[in-house]
Amino acid sequence: MDISSFDDFLTAARQQPQPQRLLFAFAHSELPENPTPAQQAAFEAGEGGALVPAVCVDKTLDELTTFEAFAEESRGFSLDWVIVFAASLSGQGGQLPSAADAEAPLQKMVASIKTGDIDAFIPFNRQGEAVRLG
Asked: Residue-wise pLDDT tens for the chain (134 aa)?
């Protein structure tokens, strides 16, 4: 399935043979130390900068309905995010992974984003559209 939106992501997760716990890392954009004038100008225009994970959460499919509801909820725990990275954690034997099961994968997700290793995740912008980074 081609995932071009957050809603596509939810549909794909619901179609999996095992229950899924969804993992999210919200990232904001920062300028590097001592930016060049070009970097500063691009950043002020809403482009460039480094993506820095700020908050991570896990959700069950029952907790998610639409991207709009998810984005509204995110305002309570993450200020000014520009990208949310998404992944899923598959259950086994028909059992949904617990929140405790998601802790280590969430931490690995954050560490991977910090190093720029983001190929395993789907990044979504604030409109719920899947975006290509890099």
From this structure: 689 999 999 999 999 999 999 999 999 888 878 888 888 888 778 777 788 898 999 999 999 988 999 988 888 876 788 899 999 999 999 999 999 999 999 999 999 999 889 999 999 999 999 998 86
Residues paired with 124 in a beta bridge: 84, 130
For residue 36, the one-letter residue type is: T
Q: 3-class DSSP state for residue 120?
A: coil
Rounded to 5°, the CA angle 17-132-27 comes to: 85
Q: Which two tokens stand for residue 122?
A: 């789907």
Q: How far apart are CA 129 and CA 121, in angstroms?
A: 14
The predicted model scores a pTM of 0.88
Helix H or strand E segment including 35? none
Residue 99 token pair: 């929140």
